[in-house]
Specification:
Structural class: mainly alpha
Organism: Macaca mulatta
Pfam families: PEX11
Distance between the termini: 32 Å
Strand content: under 5%
Keywords: Membrane, Peroxisome, Peroxisome biogenesis, Transmembrane, Transmembrane helix
Protein name: Peroxisomal membrane protein 11A
Helix content: over 70%
Shape: elongated
Subcellular location: Peroxisome membrane
Number of strands: 0
Number of helices: 7
Radius of gyration: 21 Å
Amino acid sequence: KWFRLGNVVHAIQATEQSIHATDLVPRLCLTLANLNRVIYFICDTILWVRSVGLTSGINKEKWRTRAAHHYCFSLLLSLVRDLYEISLQMKRVTRDRAKKEKSASQDSLGYSVADEETEWLQSFLLLLFRSLKQHPPLLLDTVKNLCDILNPLDQLGIYKSNPGIIGLGGLVSSIAGMITVAYPQMKLKTR
């Protein structure tokens, strides 16, 4: 129960900090995500109160669904913030790359229409890879949020997964979380 109280306090503190972010998109996404986390932890505490027998008048399924909704909303908002940060990072990488490559473009030999149809995807994936490689905290936060969202999506019946996939996602998310605790520089900063 002390971990639950600590999580609520941490979520409230994170909400207070996110309100002061200078960039509008992270400020909005993180503030709403943290508020949803606070509500999730309140729902979780209500479920805990029922599970230890302090009260029996609590509808377990209703509160479990509420908790899953708020947890899912929190993660979706965190992912929107991650996507926003990824787009900013991709713009930076593109700008830096353009500065380096002021020389004339090289025409490739053997160019075909098939190359044109797949070229945009290859370019996008390469740019995404370079962007995340240059910003490991963003990669770590995105992977953690993607792995975490598997559980509430399954609980809400939005995207059913098998327990092994959900467990693997939880393991990867836990490892990512431990990395940010062990190496604070790997935590995604709020501007």
